[in-house]
Automatic annotation (TrEMBL):
Signal peptide: none annotated. This is Dihydrofolate reductase. It comes from Microbacterium foliorum. Residues 4-176 form the Bacterial bifunctional deaminase-reductase C-terminal domain. PANTHER family: 2,5-DIAMINO-6-RIBOSYLAMINO-4(3H)-PYRIMIDINONE 5'-PHOSPHATE REDUCTASE (PTHR38011:SF11), DIHYDROFOLATE REDUCTASE FAMILY PROTEIN (AFU_ORTHOLOGUE AFUA_8G06820) (PTHR38011). SUPFAM superfamilies: Dihydrofolate reductase-like.
């Protein structure tokens, strides 16, 4: 049985992007290598349209001449996994091993978890909010960056309560802190 994992880089005040977009401190080589290892066992990524449009970069990132080895390694991890994009507006997908679903059905996700030999990842705060509300997320991974942005897109939806158990933590030289929690059932 696979676990459903929700993991993203956040600001200290809990936003996955600030009011004007991403973060300057979000990713360095040490952190990227750790993320590569964290996601090596994920067999399926679940995306909303916006997150898929961001992540599809990894379909061809390994071909960029100045791509560092950690980027090439992550591209290979991403390419090896299946991707499911949930969107009512996206006309088609543009990456291998990817399919389009029009609706997010919690019972279907629960079945996929039960039938999977590897973990699944739900990516992007909008789609993750649906999975959290449905009680589907088994594990949360927060990469908390050294900054407060004061607003933007929050990591957690504001209307849920989930009891968590700390499983792991790691501090990076960049000031990023990783916290991994399991959902208490």
């Amino acid at each position: 049985m696979g676990r459903l994992i929700y993991s993203m880089i956040t600001s200290l005040d809990g936003y996955v992007s600030g009011p004007h977009g991403g973060f300057d401190w979000a990713l360095d080589e040490e952190l990227h290598d750790f993320i590569n290892r964290q996601f090596a066992d994920v067999g399926t990524y679940l995306y909303g349209r916006r997150m898929y449009e961001t992540m599809v970069y990894w379909e061809t990132a390994h071909l960029e001449p100045d791509q560092p080895q950690v980027g090439i390694d992550y591209a290979r991890v991403w390419q090896a996994a299946d991707k499911v994009v949930f969107s009512k507006t996206l006309a088609e997908v543009s990456s291998e091993r990817t399919r389009l679903e029009r609706t997010f059905d919690p019972e279907t996700i629960e079945r996929w978890k039960a039938e999977s030999d590897s973990d699944l990842s739900v990516d992007g705060p909008t789609l993750a909010a649906e999975a959290i509300r449905a009680g589907l997320v088994d594990e949360f991974g927060l990469f908390i960056g050294p900054g407060i942005v004061g607003g933007g897109k929050p990591f957690f939806p504001g209307d849920v309560h989930v009891d968590l158990e700390l499983l792991d933590d790691k501090r990076f030289s960049s000031g990023v802190m990783f916290l991994r929690y399991a959902t208490r059932r």
